[in-house]
Amino acid sequence: MAATFLNIGGYTLVFLSVILVPHVQANVAIFDNYWTQRQGDALKQTIASYDPNPLNVTDHLNYHVALAVDATESTNNTRRELIGLETQEGSGKCIAYNPIDKCWRCDPNWEENRKKLVECVLGFGRKTTGGKDGPIYVVNDSSDDDLVNPKPGTLRHAVTRDGPLWIIFANSMVIKLQQELMITSNKTIDGRGARVYIMEGAGLTLQFVNNVIINNIYVKHIIPGNGGLIRDSEEHVGLRTKSDGDGISLFGATNVWIDHVSMTRCTDGMIDAIEGSTAVTISNSHFTDHQEVMLFGAKDEHVIDKNMQITVAFNHFGKRLEQRMPRCRFGTIHVVNNDYTHWEMYAIGGNMNPTIISQGNRFIAPPNEQAKEVTKREYTSYTDWKSWNWQSEGDYFLNGAYFVQSGRPNAWSPKPKNPVPSKFAIRPKPGTMVRELTMDAGVLGCEPECIYNEQFQIIIIFIRIHLHLVLSHVLASDPKPKTGIVVFYVGQIGNFNRLTPVDGTSKVGMSTPARKRLMRDFKRLQQDPPAGISGAPQDNNIMLWNAVIFGPDDTPWDGGTFKLSLQFSEDYPNKPPTVRFVSRMFHPNIYADGSICLDILQNQWSPIYDVAAILTSIQSLLCDPNPNSPANSEAARMYSESKREYNRRVRDVVEQSWTAD
User: Fold this and answer.
1) Residues with Cβ < 8 Å from 154, sequence gap 6 or more?
2) Is residue 608 very low, low, confident or very high in pLDDT (cuts 50, 70, 90)?
3) How does pLDDT run across 282-302, given as a tens digit for each residue?
4) Are strands 218-222 and 196-199 parallel, antiparallel or unpaired?
5) Which of 457, 538, 542, 647 has minimal Cβ neighbours within 10 Å of its Cβ?
6) What is the C-alpha to C-alpha distance for residues 144 and 504, in angstroms, rounded to an integer?
7) Does 431 share its domain with 559?
8) DSSP characters for 335-361?
């Protein structure tokens, strides 16, 4: 608010004018005294949070990685066991390879001591404590109906309170934010022990705030909010313009830790850190299905971002990502022990002379020969960028990937004034170890479940488990789960059909009931294909089908592309087809030659099942095996006795599926 004083005839007239601020102010429509104060405080915090000795920070992180990998800690399983955490067979020793996870997940009483989490953060965000000094706030209401006076018990009410809070969730829930969620300083959003989805609405905004932890939540299908009056603190309501559709937006935010977050399909960026954001760590997270993943620094003229220092560690950059993992302007970015399994354009890029230190990452290049380079310098000539400090140390390159270095090695950080102990100054763990370090990237569940990505719809699948594997049946009409039903959120796979199509006029032989039924099944697959599967008859033979199944998200099978063949007889649909995986598999219920336990399927077979139901059922089988009826005894034993080793074998199969003919 600005005031103009005018004296007329001895009277002083005061004119108050509202300053309308453009987009650079991060969607603040009215930049009043409240926001002016917050902006000034944030600038001071940015300067205070800058570490003049970044080499200390990177060496400290690498030291703790080495300790986590080389040592073991003895413990029992947690009371609310987290998916992926295993004990070493016969020893009772906790296996959690990276130092952040090892710090808290091996504690059998983690749920009673949630705030121990703040002792585990590493990297540039290492001083973040979130809501450690405040009480526990339990979110028990998933609604977001009142943006000005949010209902107590909702997430919006929690994050807009003054003072520190440690926010947890009473149960699993889906939260659809009507407008961007304005998170205030000194907050922890702790989704451990539940499945918390922020989806199909606006995203999370950290604007001019300090000291925030976001842990173990899904952020998916984020769309722009239209703006309007939104509470942004306990005592202030502000007018916001339309939001960008970022998943998590950091604008002048400091001391931020984002950990074990699963993100997919945001309208703009997944995580953007701009306008003086610094002292940030992004760790143990999983990213899929997006074009522009991370933007660190938004504009060339925003020189405040020279203070930006961000650590990106132990993350998995997965399927159908295009670029910006991250894309940087200015600042110092430490990219360490991440798994880059997919990109379409490039992985790491930037301009305006950012310092990028890549250590111990694994880069698997795409098939496109024009996209093998990990790095990309934008809008800059070689004469300018040859002196930028972009260094690669201990990275592991596959499928032709390569990193173009620049600058002088070890020139990116001045000699520390107060160096860390010499034992910290060690080399990072190599990229060959990344799969273990990132094995549990993304949200950790509190119990074994198989949940796919959302596609704005829920497909209900009957799964009846007796002593044998049972073919599940898809129901599209009942939106609520009942006894014996598991809800699967099915991800959008896109148009993936490289198989030979057959239409109603194709020559497929004589017309029989089985062939007519298969033609009807194929038309249904074309018109309304379930997400994650693709199938079609071979040319001129409708009795023999080729199919592709995509590994379910948030499971060890995630990212896999598995080929099958289905051979039908004239007895179909009264008898099931013969199904065999062409791709190499490792699964309790799949034989070495790829065939499935059809004797079990046949016992439970029903003529109402069509090809879509068959393929969807096989997809659900991947993450819900029955080890009591094994076709592969080694896989069944490993699944029952050593889940971590089983998951490692599955990941081998997934990676082989990327290059298989």
Assistant:
1) 139, 141, 142, 143, 144
2) confident
3) 999 999 999 999 999 999 999
4) parallel
5) 457
6) 49
7) no
8) EES-EE---SS-SEEEES--EEEEES-
Phi, psi at residue 635, to the nearest 5°?
-65, -40
Same domain, 285 and 343: yes
Residue 22 lies in a domain: no
Domain, as residue range, for 575 = 458-659
Which of 386, 406, 437 is a domain's end point?
A: 437
Question: To the nearest 5 percent, what fractions of the chain are helix, strand and coil?
Answer: 20, 30, 50
Half-sphere exposure of 338 (CA within 13 A, CB side): 30
Is 5 a member of any domain? no
Looking at the domain assignment, is residue 70 inside a domain? no
Find the CATH number of the domain harbouring 166: 2.160.20.10
> What's the rounded Cα separation, in Å, for the pair 465 and 425?
53
Q: Are residues 419 and 480 in the same domain?
A: no
Same domain, 507 and 388: no
The helix or strand, by DSSP H or E, that contains position 536, with its residue range, turns out to be: strand 533-538
CATH number at residue 529: 3.10.110.10
Residue in the block written with tokens 């940015």: 46
For the segment 306-324, the average pLDDT, to the nearest whole number, is 94
**Average of per-residue pLDDT values in the chain:** 80
CA angle at 312 for the pair 123 and 116, rounded to the nearest 5°: 50
412 and 367 fall within a common domain:
yes
Cα→Cα distances 56→257, 269, 281, 419, 423, Å: 19, 30, 15, 6, 12
- Active-site option among 103, 106, 446, 597: 597
User: Residue 202 and residue 219: Cα distance in Å, rounded?
Assistant: 10
Q: Is 597 a catalytic residue?
A: yes
The confidence band for 85, taking pLDDT boundaries of 50, 70 and 90, is low
The verdict on 280 and 349 lying in the same domain is yes
Cβ neighbors of 629 (< 8 A, separation 6 or more) are 467, 468, 469, 589, 597, 600
pLDDT at 485 over 80: no
Say yes or no: 292 and 145 in one domain. Answer: yes
Separation CA 218–CA 260 (nearest Å): 9
- Higher pLDDT among residues 158 and 603, named by residue: 158
Domain count, the chain: 2
C-alpha–C-alpha distance, residues 434 and 17, integer Å: 56
Tell whether the model's pLDDT for residue 80 goes beyond 80. Answer: no
Give the separation between CA 592 and CA 633, rounded to whole angstroms. 10
Asked if residue 191 belongs to a domain, the reply is: yes
- The answer for residues whose C-beta is within 8 angstroms of residue 436's C-beta and 6 or more apart is 69, 97, 648
User: Binning pLDDT at 50, 70 and 90, where does residue 386 land?
Assistant: very high
Same domain, 431 and 519: no
- Weakest mean pLDDT among 288-292, 381-385, 417-421: 417-421
Per residue in 104-120, is it b (16+ CB within 10 Å) or e — as a string? bbbbeebeeebbebbeb
Question: Global pTM?
Answer: 0.72
